[in-house]
Amino acid sequence: MSLITQRLSRHLSVGQWPRKTRVKMTGSRWTRPGDIPFPTVWRWYNGKQPLEGKTPRFRIQDVTEDLEDEVVQHMTDVFLRDEPMCSSVGLADDPVSVLEFQTMWRDYMRQRVALVAVVEPETTPYSGHRVAGCNLLGITCRGDVTDINKYKGVAFRKLIEALDHTTKMAKLFERYGVDYYLCALGLSVAREYRGQGLGFELLKARFDLGRAMGLPLTVTLFSPASTQWMGAQLGMKTVVEIDYEDYKDDEGHVVFSGIENKSMKLMAGKI
Length: 271
Description:
The protein is built from eight helices and ten strands. By secondary structure, it is of the alpha+beta class. It has an eight-stranded mixed beta sheet with strand order 3-4-5-6-7-8-10-9, sandwiched between helices. It has a two-stranded antiparallel ribbon with strand order 1-2. The longest helix has 18 residues, at about 65-80. The radius of gyration is 18 Å and the shape is globular.
């Protein structure tokens, strides 16, 4: 076990979650409670199948500063090309959109609720990459306003417009009677670790984190059928569902075409 693993293990072991903490607000903004150690390991997980004779072991923890660049690189190289809505609009090939997405991911990581799955190096045949997956989480507060006009990337704007449209339809603050909720801007697993059940564990860890910090609700716009299924398995409910063929721009063109499953779903789960 590495030195950093030993240090993180002292903060939290599997099944020993911190007590639910009163949420701290600074002005209208949420801040991470001071009695929750940073970083915290939220979950340990052994993969489902061996890779070249080794069963990978993953540590799901807070994203620390030394991992930020690697997380952003993973999301850029993997998520932007594999996530159905991003792929549909060619976001990975739009440099302005890529930069704007990267900036937003970094803003989310500053809130200290983003999660990363780090593979223990002695349990994998793949070297050179610590990040096996991640879930870019942030906090949305009542009164937050999305200024879509500030985004110049054509592809990125399409994503933000879809997210803004569905969340406005959902009226989440009124529906659930909350002042803030845990949101997400990407759940991704490295291609070499797919089939291990890691994406599901990352989603479970989101609930671990939310419970520890006293967050009342988590919300995500899920586009692939796989994550929609995972969300439902963890008790998340579909609040807004829009068929891709019905979501069109002002000129009547379908915005997200060529996606295998039928619809995008804004799903919410009480924590």
